[in-house]
Structures are given as C-alpha cells and as structure tokens.
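[#protein-structures] MJ: dropping SRPBCC domain-containing protein here for a structure pass
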Amino acid sequence: MPDQSRTTEPADAAVADLDAGTITRTITIAAPRDRVWEALATPEHIETWWGHPSTFPDGWRAGSVGSFSWQGTPYPVRLDVLDPPAELVLTWGDLNGELDETSTTVHFTLEAHDGGTRLTVLESGFLNKPAAARRAAMEENTSGWNAVLDWLAEFVTTGQAPQHEGQP
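AK: finished. structure tokens for SRPBCC domain-containing protein:
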C-alpha cells in the first residue's frame, strides 16, 4: 500500500548546496498545520517520532537551551524562534557540546497546502565548519533529513512511533 502520509515524489528528497552550505527539504504532510506543529514543537512528541531523548531543563520557549540526542550522543540545541504554528528556528551544536561558530541553524516553516501542510526545513551554517569536515557533515545531515522528516510525517498521520530501522 502506498504511503499516504506525505508526497512520495523523488523531488521531495533533501538537497545539499555545498557552495551555499545549506540543506533544504520540503515535504507535504496529509495533516492540518496545527497537528504537524504540535508534533514538531512539543518535546514529548519530538521524542516519540525522533526516537531519541529531547531535553530542555528550563522549558520549551524562545531562548531555551537543551539537547537532542542522536545515536546516544546529546547535541546542544538553542530554541531561537517559536512562532506557532508557522515557524521554528533552532541553533544546533556539534559533538564538542558547544553552541559556537560551527553550529548550524535549522529553520522549519509550515504552510497550509491543499488540505495538508507543506513543511520546509532549511539547515544553514555549514560554511562555518572546517573544510575537511563540511562535506561529511552535509552528507550525513542530508541523509538524516530524508529519514527524520519521513518519521515526523509517519507519526503525524498515524499517531504511532515510527520504526527507526536503517537509522542514519
């Protein structure tokens, strides 16, 4: 049975622009914008579809600093913009545990579209990373956004935690 949770066109895969140091992916999720927002921007829902701990000790609000874990490693995250149900902007740190000049910015925008939601993620800031690490980081994150947004769409449309087989 075809996946009805999002568009399935190959054109919706994440695209890395090495010259600009950005990764972009847009998908359409067959659910109202408020429901997509709730899953995207509520820590307990994030843990369900992300499949890893999401910790914000001082709460989930603009300026909060916490972490998203990935494969057992916590990455620092700062919540920069929280504009329900349209925009979420995060600064995402590296393994060094710091939010610094090598951090990337992850910008989510949500638009109502044909009875569903068009969700775009733009991750930028890769040009601030050392050249040797830039390409590898962009390749890994491009693959990651392909999986992660699919997990989000599955959770939003089914209410079930996605299986994370073959997790990047």
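MJ: nice. The chain has one domain: 14-158.
AK: one more thing. The chain has three helices and eight strands.
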